[in-house]
Amino acid sequence: MKETDLNWLSPMSSSLRSFASDNNSSVDPDILKGLEIINKNHAIGYGDDPYTEEAIKVIKEIFSADVQPFFLLTGTGTNVLALAQLLKPYEAVICAETAHINVDETGAPEHFCGCKLITVKTTDGKLNPDLIKPYLHLIGDRHHSQPKVVSISNATEVGTVYNTKELKALSEFCHENGLFLYCDGARLANAAVYLGVSLKEITVDSSVDVFSLGGAKNGLLLGEVLIFSNKKLASNFEFLQKNGLQLPSKMRYISSQFLIYLKEQIYKRNADHSNRMAKLLSDKIKEIKGIEIVYPVQANSVFVKLEKKHISRLLEKHFFYIWDEQQDIVRWMTSFDTTKEDIDNFVESIKKVLSTS
Questions:
Q1: How confident is the model over 111-136, as pLDDT tens digits?
Q2: What's the whole-model pTM score?
């Protein structure tokens, strides 16, 4: 079979390193190497392949023999189907005002689940029992959506991390009040590495009912794992997965990534690096006059308050997102492939902009 010369793609490959999102990063070379290996032969589709079987085995070894994992395509799809599995249409989700399901999913949870999101203001992106208590009076009143799920992210959308004590307090409170606790784990590896604990300690051991383990933000090509801590909660989920457009036919290309990611501890290596790069960036900018770091730097993001004119000038050279237009807060994300040179170049740009404006 004739090989195709794809060098025409090279001019489209930009050398730009941005601090906008860890979604913008490349794919870990070890993951690509693994995909090349599994790409040599055919395999049965929809998860009936040896790679998926082995990945499930490894997940059970890491978390618990009683967990039930499912491999899905996207983060939004994973969040939506997790909530759909746990909710009836008249029930509600309690989440932080900054939650991804509230801010960045275009109403997908409400659309597909028919549920209501009850949003809570927080100072650090984290929920706690005291913040949830005021909404419990809704339970039993037929005129209100019934709270049933508390949804958190770890790490949160503002880069803060729930520790095991906070998680256990939250899960205990939820279970005492008939609520499920769901964790969006798009950056779960970053949270675990920051705390110096295992993935199991901040999920199953902390009595989180259902959680996701993301990979696309930490070196994978795409894919998520939705993990039910108790198999009973996963009853008939395979039908919802297909019905909800999240059952990949070539499942092995997702499951094998997680097999490599977990077995070779790539998740830990990559999360550790991206966290350290965020810490390095924050250390280098915190003494610069005119910059205010607004949230603790715990995972791989740095949130900064800057004057509008400085934001505009920085955006001329570096791509990143404005987090809060009203308060002039921007978000700078680091990735597993962010280098010290990237940080140094960015910091130099910041210094130059702030010193000449």
A1: 999 999 999 999 999 999 999 999 99
A2: 0.97
Q: Output the six-digit token pair for 48.
A: 């009936």
Whole-number Å distance between alpha carbons of 100 and 188: 14
**258 alpha carbon, distance to own chain's centre:** 15
Residue 119's closest CA among 104, 136, 134, 102?
102
Report the pLDDT value the prediction gives residue 10, as an integer from 0 to 100. Answer: 85
Residue 45 CA: distances (Å) to CA of 75, 172, 251, 344:
22, 40, 6, 46
**CB atoms < 10 A from the CB of 305, how many?**
16
Rg value, the chain, Cα: 21
Residues 168, 206: contact at Cβ < 8 Å? yes
Please report which confidence band the pLDDT of residue 321 belongs to, taking 50, 70 and 90 as the band edges.
Answer: very high
**Residue 222 DSSP label:** S
Distances (CA, A) of 40 to 48, 249, 283: 17, 17, 46
pLDDT reading at 29 higher than 70: yes
Starting at the edge strand that comes first in sequence, how are the strands of the sheet with 224-228 ordered? 68-72, 224-228, 210-214, 180-184, 146-153, 91-96, 116-120
Give the residue from 115, 31, 58, 44 showing the smallest Cα distance to 81: 115
Please state, in angstroms and rounded to a whole number, the distance separating the CA atoms of residues 54 and 41: 17
| Closest C-alpha among 274, 219, 299 to residue 23 | 219
User: Among 6-20, 43-57, 286-300, which is the least confidently predicted range?
Assistant: 6-20
pLDDT tens for each residue of 272-285: 999 999 999 999 99
Asked if the peptide bond before residue 155 counts as cis, ω within 30 degrees of 0, the response is yes
Let me know: does 303 contact 293? Beta carbons within 8 Å: yes
